[in-house]
Amino acid sequence: MNTTNLRAETGIDDRSAEMGWFWFNIDDDRWLWSAQVERMHGYQPGTTAPSTPLLLSHVHLDDYRQVAATLHDARRTRRPFSSQHRIVDTAHHVHDVVMVAAPCHDTDGTILGMHGLCLDAPAGSADDRRQRVRAATRC
User: Fold this and answer.
1) What are phi and psi of 107, to 5 degrees?
2) Which domains does the chain have, with CATH numbers?
3) Ranges for the PAS fold-3 domain (predicted)?
4) Rounded to an integer, what is the distance from CA 69 to the centroid of its chain?
């Protein structure tokens, strides 16, 4: 979904929310981030090599254990996951984010990794954020 559709369907404008994609290769712990996800973390697109340690280094200290456990379980079970947590970008700004991911299979059904979306949710009440995320993801 592009930010124009996001704005029209949720009332969130592209200055206050951003959505990007990620790919997580479970076997070699390699990540790919879209330009939007790189910017959420404070990086210029194409200037970082995403990894689990890098991702976890940006997670707010109060949310670290939950996110680390979620990623550990995703690696172990290879099942879909979601997480609502805070990240701290390179400029020390805190972002409320929602990550959702599902397994990606090859033609034989082997799970190759996880692909998903990361939404940088605007400030507001938890109920407001939840409604906006549901509207944006049709969940």
Assistant:
1) -65, -20
2) 19-130 (3.30.450.20)
3) 31-117
4) 15
